[in-house]
């Protein structure tokens, strides 16, 4: 399914206004409390906070993996409240890329086919998907490891494969949840540098992290605490 594009390309990648997320319980758990956040196209943003601050909930909402309980959410110019589940899936596949702390690679496949699987449901033939996967692996500096099984790759290489898989569809927005969490400091720094390079090529990148040292290296830092924005270095108000 192809989404109808907005009339003009939006300048804003992500926009949240008064966003609340509440989970049922006694009492209910309010993970987000009236969050206002705007991220423009081409920004490189870290969202930092301790466990339970709401940062992963925020990522799931802007990534269309969960819906807000209240408030307005726009992604790539689309109002999420106006989209049904099928349209949300199309939005994810056409505009968003995801990288997680766990690499989620298939152990019995090569790096190439793990990346090609990122386009599995697009209907493209395998040869074309592998061609696109080769280009994505080259972009993350792993073209020479394309034929290696996932189990034979280092942690840093596996994360690069995961990033390549997220990039294969040329998403406008890359969302990364603790992408350095399972890596040593040196390897983690190389992954952050890779994300910075991809951002310089035009991809909007939002990274969730609990590591304030990593977050402080980003051009913009958004700090969450108890479901609210505690500080935003890019706040223009």
Structure description:
The mean pLDDT is 90. The longest helix has 16 residues, at 185-200. 30% of the residues lie in helices and 27% in strands. The chain has a single domain, classed as Rossmann fold. The strands form 2 sheets. Strands 6-7-8-3-9-10 form a 6-stranded mixed beta sheet, with helices on both faces. Strands 2-1-4-5 form a 4-stranded antiparallel beta sheet, with helices on one face. The protein has 237 residues and is an alpha/beta fold.
State the total count of DSSP E strands. Answer: 10
Q: In CATH, what is the class? A: Alpha Beta
| Average pLDDT score | 90
The domain tally reads: 1
Assign the CATH superfamily: P-loop containing nucleotide triphosphate hydrolases
Q: Number of helical runs?
A: 7
> CATH topology, which one?
Rossmann fold
In the CATH hierarchy, the architecture is 3-Layer(aba) Sandwich
What is the 3D form? globular
**Considering DSSP H and I runs of 4 or more, what fraction of the residues is helical?**
25-40%
Summarize the biggest pleated sheet: 6 strands, mixed
N-to-C CA distance: 39 Å
Question: Strand order of the main beta sheet, please?
Answer: 6-7-8-3-9-10
Counting helices, strands and paired strands, the structural category is alpha/beta
């Amino acid at each position: 399914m192809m989404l109808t594009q907005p009339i003009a390309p939006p300048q804003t990648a992500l926009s949240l206004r008064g966003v609340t997320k509440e989970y049922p319980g006694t009492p209910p758990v309010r993970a987000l409390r009236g969050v206002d956040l705007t991220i423009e196209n081409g920004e490189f943003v870290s969202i930092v906070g301790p466990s339970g601050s709401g940062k992963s909930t925020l990522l799931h909402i802007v990534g269309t993996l969960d819906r807000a309980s209240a408030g307005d959410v726009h992604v790539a110019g689309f109002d999420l409240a106006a989209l049904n589940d099928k349209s949300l899936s199309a939005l994810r596949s056409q505009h968003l890329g995801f990288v997680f702390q766990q690499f989620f690679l298939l152990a019995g496949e090569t790096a190439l086919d793990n990346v090609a699987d990122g386009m599995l449901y697009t209907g493209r033939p395998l040869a074309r998907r592998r061609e696109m996967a080769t280009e994505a692996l080259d972009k993350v500096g792993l073209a020479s490891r394309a034929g290696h099984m996932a189990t034979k790759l280092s942690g840093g290489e596996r994360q690069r494969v995961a990033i390549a898989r997220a990039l294969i569809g040329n998403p406008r927005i890359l969302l990364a949840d603790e992408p350095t969490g399972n890596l040593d400091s040196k390897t983690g720094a190389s992954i952050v540098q890779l994300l910075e390079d991809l951002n310089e090529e035009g991809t909007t990148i939002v990274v969730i992290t609990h590591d304030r040292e990593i977050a402080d290296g980003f051009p913009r830092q958004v700090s969450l605490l108890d479901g609210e924005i505690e500080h935003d270095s890019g706040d223009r108000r």
